[in-house]
Amino acid sequence: MAARAFRTSSSLLRTAAVSAPSSFSRPVLAIHQSRRRFAVSASKMSSYYEWEPEGPTVKTEIPGPKSRAAIAELDEVFDTRSLNMLTDYQKSSGNYIADPDGNVLLDVYAQIASIPIGYNNPALLKAARGDEMINGLINRPALGNFPPADWANVLKTGILKVAPKGLDQVFTAMAGSDANETAYKAAFMWRRQHERGGAHVEFTEAEMASAMDNQLPAGSSELSIMSFKTGFHGRLFGSLSTTRSKPIHKLDIPAFDWPQATFPLLKYPLEDYVEENAAAEKAALEEVEHLILNYRVPPCAVIVEPIQSEGGDNHASPAFFRSLRTLTRKHNVLLIVDEVQTGVGATGKFWAHEHWDLPEPPDMVTFSKKAQTAGYYFGNPELRPNKPYRQFNTWMGDPARALLFRSIIQEIERLGLVEKTAKVGDYLYGKLELLAKKYPGQFQNLRGKGMGTFIAFDNPRRDEFLVKAKTFGVNIGGSGKEAVRLRPMLIFEEKHADILLAALEKIAASW
Ligand SMILES: Cc1ncc(COP(=O)(O)O)c(C=O)c1O
Asked: Which residues lie in coiled coils (predicted)?
């Protein structure tokens, strides 16, 4: 197949064949050596990735011959059945992901919503080459026992600099599932500590003995964590019990008997279903309260995603979340907001729950993905267990990744990327509305208005849609049954939106 490249012209949804600039084929790492090339002005964001290709290039089918050979070799030693695209990370740049066959796609999937400020970002490259990062990488500490002397400073100038309002402490972890599981443990220990009468009350002999038998002492009842149907909170043992997105994630794995409430699956367009949607949210809240009061294993915490992401991009109104906060407080149940996917800017606020105007903060907020590191924020000191080693593991996070997040935060702030994401999201949403009018069957239930670039729609032939997207130069992800979810990076600009929109229209027009 002849090389095809795409970029937008002045007409929104027209594409023109152009070649990617030849500079792009130079090794990215070499390009980054030139200071001049990444001199950036905050007001002129488009110059930030001046070596980015003007548009995608599709040279072969994907996977092409080189990728197929490499995948076959890989498959001999590593399960490749979930493989989406074999990637050449050295050649990937900014918003563009490259493969070994020379294909370069606009990436609005971004490693499952995890790349914050572009592939081979020069600022991160610089941070990675610095002594501090090298030290963090080659002298990885067991953080609970031997934290680096400047760990407080690293936290205060990084992870805690962007802490959600009202939450000034952090427990660092290694992945989203780990962040959630450790938050669950904090919730259980907090509740039991209350039941015992405070942090100073010693454990009884009966408690200690029964703990070693995986039992509770006689007379105690189990506790649970409540989650929502179609929610996703990870795949480790504890987190998997709260995950309710797809059976394939859960089959054969022992799970806790924990309650699940219905998430209010809203109907679109929202303005046509105001009463119906309000009724769905009210019913969901009533169910939450009913389960808190009556479930056979009472919950000590409720975990919720601001937008159910893996479950299909399901939104609820700020009023729903405000009521959830009030309800959990009323019943002395903790509220854990899982911002693993929604956090770090993509919704046009640093944390998605900032959209809710909560009467008081959540008790814990978990994070990972775009933060590159992970953990949970909390404010109440009682959420620190009463004794050391109750919440502990070897790494307890990773200083190198915490340093990377600090550099990411600096870039986000320097370039105003959260505000820019809000704006470009509005632009993208507006154009998608037009596409949805033109091809109503293909852009169903468009959602994410006012939520930055955290936008999705349903397509009845979603899986085919995503395969076709690659042939038109765009890497897009799906979620839930038939959602096409957009997860661009924070450096996604209007010019990238135009390329994406052009590709989306080509897909729609091809059916
Ligand atoms: C909302 C949410 N929570 C938790 C997780 C689990 O994170 P990880 O895959 O890093 O364990 C994910 C992953 O997609 C997620 O989207």
From this structure: none
